[in-house]
């Protein structure tokens, strides 16, 4: 059976540079690596094929010979002396070096699994009110997490015993198997890559070295915090294994919506109804503030719906600077009176009879534009 073209195997063109070849090899080697395919013979064959192709094309001399003579360059009597990895060289060692160069010193998967492993980070979602975000607060939370087992001090071995070095991998956490002229490295099946085996597991944790516990923590929520912000508590995550450091705890804050105020960064907004008479004559209305107090807002004479009035310093504090505080914007909407008595209606009619264009400039201007529009439409019809 004839060999496939090396460039075709890697999915590269003949003018591909070293970076493109290396990238193609990395992707295919990860795809067909035996550890990723459960020992599938077809995947192992493809893995070998990809390794052989890259071993040739990554060498300038071998690539030049292959480009000129093809596979014949490495057959008996060919330019390569019958070995695509180089005459007299040990193909196993060369392949291991090649794989380590592409994926790192630890081989496939990087570092070995037997060493200390940092504990996982944890996430906790915390809801607070807008008023609590304004003042800040000290919150007590309960976080379930894995902690080191006390009876075995996190070793997983029963008290009085210790984990033993795995006799299959010698503590390396990896074992090698011969596959033709390749040496394949896999996770040790006996110790699962830890390099240690536990003959007498701890009864408390079952040999895991960790147990689940719910811890109570006190968290300081700063004033001015906003939804989406996170607070990091270093070393309050999951415990590490084999002496590894603890992970961190991240608290994600969600400020729930308020019935009265809407927030935009440090500023607050609210809509306030204004009686028609107050809007016309001017006056004052009273509104609440986020700190639980009250504030009086002066309504100018002739105020219209949609007008915003600003109360300086009545917004939210800045989480970055306690000296900075946002503003409170009050948007007015003029309330039309309902459920009028006969006398009230009579007074309103009298008011309407004695008002003119000066009292309703917006209405008069709008009516004027309507009249001009209608007159223009009539003129156009007559012209046609």
Automatic annotation (TrEMBL):
Keywords: Chaperone, Cytoplasm, DNA replication, Metal-binding, Repeat, Stress response, Zinc, Zinc-finger
GO biological process: DNA replication; protein refolding; response to heat
Residue stretches making up the CR-type domain: 136-214
Domain J: 5-70
Extent of the signal sequence: none
PANTHER family tied to this protein: CHAPERONE PROTEIN DNAJ, DNAJ HOMOLOG 1, MITOCHONDRIAL-RELATED
Cofactor: Zn(2+)
Residue numbers binding Zn(2+) 1: 149, 152, 202, 205
Annotated source species: Hyphomonas johnsonii MHS-2
Protein name per its UniProtKB record: Chaperone protein DnaJ
Protein family membership: Belongs to the DnaJ family.
Gene this chain is encoded by: dnaJ
Entry's cofactor comment: Binds 2 Zn(2+) ions per monomer.
Pfam families to which the protein is assigned, alphabetical: DnaJ, DnaJ_C, DnaJ_CXXCXGXG
One annotated GO molecular function: zinc ion binding
Residues in CXXCXGXG motif repeats: 149-156, 166-173, 188-195, 202-209
């Amino acid at each position: 059976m004839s060999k496939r073209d090396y460039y075709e195997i890697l999915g590269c063109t003949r003018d591909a540079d070293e970076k493109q070849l290396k990238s193609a090899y990395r992707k295919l080697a990860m795809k067909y690596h035996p550890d990723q395919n459960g020992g599938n013979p077809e995947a192992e064959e493809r893995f070998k094929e990809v390794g052989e192709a890259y071993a040739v094309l990554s060498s300038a001399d071998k690539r030049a010979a292959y480009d000129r003579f093809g596979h014949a360059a490495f057959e008996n009597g060919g330019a390569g002396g019958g070995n695509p990895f180089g005459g007299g060289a040990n193909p196993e060692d060369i392949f291991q070096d090649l794989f380590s160069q592409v994926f790192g010193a630890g081989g496939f998967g990087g570092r070995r699994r037997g060493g200390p492993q940092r504990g996982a980070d944890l996430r906790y979602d915390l809801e607070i009110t807008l008023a609590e975000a304004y003042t800040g607060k000290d919150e007590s939370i309960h976080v379930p997490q894995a902690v080191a087992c006390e009876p075995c001090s996190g070793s997983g071995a029963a008290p009085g015993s210790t984990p033993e070095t795995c006799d299959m991998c010698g503590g390396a956490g990896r074992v090698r198997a011969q596959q033709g002229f390749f040496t394949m490295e896999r996770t040790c099946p006996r110790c699962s890559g830890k390099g240690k085996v536990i003959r007498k597991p701890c009864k408390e944790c079952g040999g895991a070295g960790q147990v689940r516990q719910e811890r109570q923590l006190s968290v300081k929520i700063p004033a001015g915090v906003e939804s989406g912000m996170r607070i990091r508590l270093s070393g309050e995550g999951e415990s590490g294994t084999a002496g590894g450091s603890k992970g961190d705890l991240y608290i994600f804050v969600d400020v729930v919506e308020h019935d009265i105020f809407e927030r935009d960064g440090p500023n607050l907004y609210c809509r306030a109804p204004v009686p028609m008479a107050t809007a016309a004559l001017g006056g004052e209305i009273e509104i609440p503030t986020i700190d639980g107090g009250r504030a009086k807002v002066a309504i100018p004479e002739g105020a219209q719906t949609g007008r915003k009035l600003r109360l300086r310093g009545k917004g939210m504090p800045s989480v970055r600077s306690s000296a900075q505080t946002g503003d409170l914007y009050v948007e007015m909407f003029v309330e039309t009176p309902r459920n009028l008595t006969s006398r009230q209606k009579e007074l309103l009619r009298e008011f309407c009879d004695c008002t003119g264009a000066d009292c309703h400039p917006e209405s008069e201007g709008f009516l004027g534009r309507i009249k001009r529009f209608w007159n223009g439409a009539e003129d156009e019809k007559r012209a046609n």
